[in-house]
Specification:
The chain contains nine helices and six strands, in the order H-E-E-E-H-H-E-H-H-H-H-H-E-E-H. By secondary structure, the chain is an alpha+beta fold. The chain folds into two domains: 86 residues, Archaeosine Trna-guanine Transglycosylase, Chain: A, domain 4 (Roll); 96 residues, Arc Repressor Mutant, subunit A, CATH 1.10.10.
Length: 193
């Protein structure tokens, strides 16, 4: 479930506790925890609701000024769901990307994970190349970086998210940077592309 940054921040600070979505099939289940730009968010409950029954007070709890505007942003087809949300803690990748004190075992584990990503790729080995590219072009637009490697933007961004999940990169409003952990990895690994 994707949440706009403003809504994710609202969940984190307690001003947002609901989301409304229209899906053909229920997309999330109670207990599911997902990562947002503002930290971890838990789905506490999900229930179908008639869109017309959404109140202005509920819209405000979902980060909208009123129910009419919220209803206007729902998908045109499907069942409308009320999703109860709560903050589940900070994004663990933030602490991970700051951890630059890598042991030989840490480097070996990252080597193995990146080699596995490279082997599974339909476009060949990419992990080291992307880390080096991001290091050479900090906070450069993703479409520009994707063009430099001959890829479409969306699949390029999916690959970079895999590096981010390992704590090797961090995202900004525009572009990416190699994290302290990523820099430590690049200086320690014996892998070469």
């Amino acid at each position: 479930m994707l949440l706009p940054l403003k809504v994710a921040r609202g969940v984190a600070d307690g001003t947002v506790s609901l989301a409304f979505r229209r899906w053909r099939a229920q997309d999330v289940r109670p207990g599911h925890v997902f990562t947002t730009a503002a930290g971890l968010v838990r789905v506490d409950a999900v229930e179908p609701v008639a869109a017309e029954a959404i109140t202005d007070a509920e819209a405000v709890q979902a980060g909208w000024p009123d129910a009419d505007r919220l209803r206007g942003r729902l998908a045109p087809e499907g069942t409308t769901y009320r999703v109860h949300l709560s903050y589940a803690g900070p994004d663990p990748r933030v602490a991970l990307r700051q951890d630059a004190d890598l042991s030989a075992a840490d480097v070996a584990a990252l080597d193995a994970k990146l080699e596995r990503l490279d082997r599974a790729s339909s476009h060949g080995a990419w992990t080291l190349h992307y880390l080096e590219l991001i290091g050479e072009h900090p906070q450069r637009r993703a479409p520009d970086l994707a063009q430099l490697v001959g890829r479409e933007t969306a699949p390029f961004k999916i690959d970079v998210r895999k590096l981010k999940a390992l704590g090797l990169t961090e995202s900004f409003a525009v572009g990416y940077e190699v994290s302290p952990r990523g820099r430590a990895y690049l200086s320690s690994t014996t892998r070469r592309r």
